[in-house]
Amino acid sequence: MTAQEAVPVRDSEPANEDASVIQPIGFIPAPVSTGGNKLLLSPKAIAVATCLCLGALILVYLLVARSLIFETQPADADISVSGFALRLGDGHLVLPGNYHYTVSATGYLPQSGEVEISSDSNSRHAVKLERLPGHLQVIAEPRVPVRVLVNGTEVDSSDGLAQSIPAGRKRITILTERYLPFSKEVEIEGLDNTQTLTASLRPAWANVHITSNPAGATVSVEGRILGTTPLTAELVQGDRTVDISLPDYKTVQLPVPVTAGVDQTLQTVNLAAADGTLRVVSNPPGASITVDGEYRGRAPMDVELSSNRRHQLRFFLDGYSSVEHSVDVRAGDLRDLNVELTAVFGDVTITSSPPEAQVFIDGKLAGIAGETFTLPTRSHTISVRKAGYEDYQTTIVPSSKLKQSVRAVLLTGEQARWSNVPAEMTHGAGGKMLLMRPNSEFTMGSSRREQGRQANEVLRKISLTRPFYLGTTEVTNREYRQYQRMHSSSHANGVSLDNDNLPVVNISWNDAALFCNWLSARDGLKEVYRTERGRVVGFDVNANGYRMPTEAEWAWAARYDRGAMRKFPWGDALPVGKNSGNYADSSAGQIIPAVLRTYNDSYAATAPVASFSPNHLGLFDMGGNVSEWIHDLYTIGTGLSTRAEENPVGPQDGDYHVLRGSSWRHAGLTELRLAYRDYGAEARNDVGFRVARWVN
Fold first, then answer.
1. How far apart are CA 463 and CA 429, in angstroms?
2. Which of 506, 551, 536, 576 is nearest to 650 (CA)?
3. Burial class of residue 50, CB neighbours in 10 A (0-12, 13-18, 19+)
4. Which of 71, 84, 83, 163 has its CA nearest to residue 111?
5. Could you give the 3-state DSSP secondary structure of residue 136?
6. Transmembrane stretches, by residue range (predicted)?
7. What is the pLDDT of residue 40?
8. pLDDT at 1
9. 124-151 pLDDT, tens per residue?
């Protein structure tokens, strides 16, 4: 197709051959740049997108963030918070988490801390800053060096400036020499500021006028010389001691009470002439010295004597005649006096038993007992010695007018040891005890032929050598109630068993043992009975505490008399002797069925301890009144052995313990005998006990 063919022809218009024809031109492609890529978004689009993202982030931050508000004192304090914290009004806007903060203000100590911001709620914190210490400048009037006390405690100060005083109301006290203390309440504002306090000081002295006769004496107070009399001195208030001294005169010390601002004039002080000195030496030395009857000491010594008068001096020493001297001295004199003493002797005759013992006088061998010794009339130590015996020692002062004698009774070691052991003692509850030294062999029990004998009275050969103390009476209600205050021994058919001086009854063997342990602890002794949960489980034979007597001890104390064994407390035959003890007599007929119809002891039940005569050892009621708990467990032997049992104490464990002695309930031949044995464990109204203890 040609260009001409491409021109459209409108059917309504005729063709114009002269019309211009649009000519086609050749197509030339636009040049393509190879140096860069065309942007996908325009800068404007990017800016819009960025704003949208930033707005979204801010919106999320505002939705998630929580407010952190600090209420501070002072209110204008500066607050800094770690991390991203948006300051918003009086607080900060922060995301949940942990933040470190610091609050500071001028004049205050900064305060830091940690806070935790949760996503649930806003956070509010109160912070009160502590004021910095303040300073106080004290201006004293008059201008004198001062010391500063804050609330009674002195603080460092320089030229009246006390630094670093904690803020608050303080009691400020100003002290200085020669002025009265100044005190005032001051509000220390702190904040590192310096305040001023003016202290008007009042004098703390008074004028004291002092004169002396003669004049010209030196006046000093507490070692500080003030001048010579007459003078007027300023003395600080208080109790002062004024010394007034002048050569050749005695120094006078005057107590002067001084009140600030109150002047005074002292009475004229009359000075007395000074003492003289007498240097005294005695032969032999050590003589006692009196001056005008007043004891001064022992020679050699310097004796001060008032001048211009005569004095009487006396010298005396044990074993020597006294010497007297009359002396006078002048003021300030120093004189010597030598005194010779003459020895005085007396005769002492010394004998000994056994004879021919050696005699030591003042530690030196002087001769043999039986001689007469001439000794100075002073105290001497006499010792008399002989091999195999303990030394005898005494002191004696011989007399020149009277012949004296010393008799030394020498004891063997055993005798000397026992001489130091008391024959009688009182235990902590008040009971009396006697020393027993048996050293005996005897047969305990009874013969099968003895009328009234029981099968448990088997004969046993005993060797009793261990010394012991034994109570003279049975333990009373008064003594036992010191251990068990509420104990009652009750009554027997209306007859009281509970009076203080009656023997304690209605106690078990275990109760008696626990009383012994209590008494041992009270007297500081080692307990004999071993216990577990209040029950006795054994005993210690080496303990020195209290216990009940062993059966061998009780039998020896009740029966053994000059090598023979008593059958009854009153002798070896019936009937019962008059006033022999408290048994089931006619007065007990309404309480018990079997009684001694021909015997009356006046007590229906128990009798006060020691109501009847003691036995040959001084022990009361070894028969009658109450039967007695014994230390030993109850056993029955097999018969008389050829070998003696030495100090038997019985086995460590068992069910029952021995009972010995008759009681107020007994009237039969079997029970009245001292060989009678019974046993038990539980309390009865006719069973008590007495205490014993070994002597170690």
1. 31
2. 551
3. exposed
4. 71
5. strand
6. 45-64
7. 62
8. 39
9. 888 888 888 988 989 988 888 888 989 9
